[in-house]
Amino acid sequence: MEPRRHRYSRAQRQYRGSAEHWLRQSSVGALALCLGGCLAGHTAEVQRSKLPPLPDPITRHQNRVVIQLSPEVVPDSQCVAYEQYQTLCFDGVRTAIEDSLEDLLWPSFPDVKIRRHGDELEPGDYLLQVELKLDALPPDRSRYGWSAAAKGRWRVVRDGLPLEGESLSTRSRGDFAYGSGLGQAAGEVVDAVAAHIAQVVVRLPEPAPYEPVPLPPVVLKNSFTPEPAPAPTVEPAAPLPVPPQAERQAKTHNAIP
Questions:
Q1: In angstroms, how far is CA 116 from the centroid of its own chain?
Q2: What are the two backbone dihedrals, phi and then psi, of residue 140, each rounded to the nearest 5 degrees?
Q3: In which region does residue 86 sit, left (phi positive, over 0), alpha (psi from -120 to 50) or beta (all else)?
Q4: Which pLDDT band, with edges at 50, 70 and 90, does 45 fall under?
Q5: Which of 13, 37, 89, 214 is buried most deeply by CB count within 10 Å?
């Protein structure tokens, strides 16, 4: 039988262990017990890997893409708990998927922006909305260790019209022990989700494809090879001087009629 699971956010876990809550429910002794047990647990920082560029074809879009992950829907820290196990919190969830999507989408769009509270959209913007929840799954018949799982949905909207969207789920390798090592497993599923979403988004049709302005030609010159030395200048040889006796004979010969 799989261990029973409790799921709540880090904020909820901290509230469950807050002094105000427990003073309302019990005595100071109960408060000390909670602070020793409720706040203890494991932290698994989501570890991203270096994703390769997306293969062609990639559509060159005219407008930017804005990525939106609401902190209320995708908290940066997501916690799960099983009976007889300490609470496990995945940290850096929202930041990891935002960074992965930003790295993958930039070849297709002139700008990739992470939307924060108060940011306004511009006409023609592609709005990419993502919801994602992480989980830790115990060993089963197909996996001898713990694994990370992700489940969520996404969609792309442009000027109020939905263009594409899906629900999705994935699960990492089951090679991990329960605890901080699951941060690597969480990175696997986050990168898998980001790569799948990006592969669809970069191939969305563009009504007016981007036409780059042709650049002027560049004249090439190899500046690393030394130029050959100039050929030496050869001066013409000066005429040999005529001996005085030969000069007199030539004059005498010319004077004879």
A1: 18
A2: -145, -165
A3: beta
A4: very high
A5: 89
Residue 113: CB atoms within 10 Å: 16
How many Å apart are CA 171 and CA 149, to the nearest integer?
4
* Burial of residue 249, with CB atoms counted within 10 A of its CB: 0-12 exposed, 13-18 middle, 19 or more buried: exposed
End-to-end CA gap in the chain = 143
What average pLDDT score do residues 203-210 get?
84
Mean pLDDT, residues 206-224:
83
Write out pLDDT tens, residues 174-202: 999 999 999 999 999 999 999 999 999 99
| Residue showing tokens 């969609």 | 155
Domains of the chain: 8-39 (no CATH), 41-201 (3.40.50)
| 87-91 and 5-9 strand pairing | unpaired
Please tell me the predicted confidence (pLDDT) of residue 36: 37
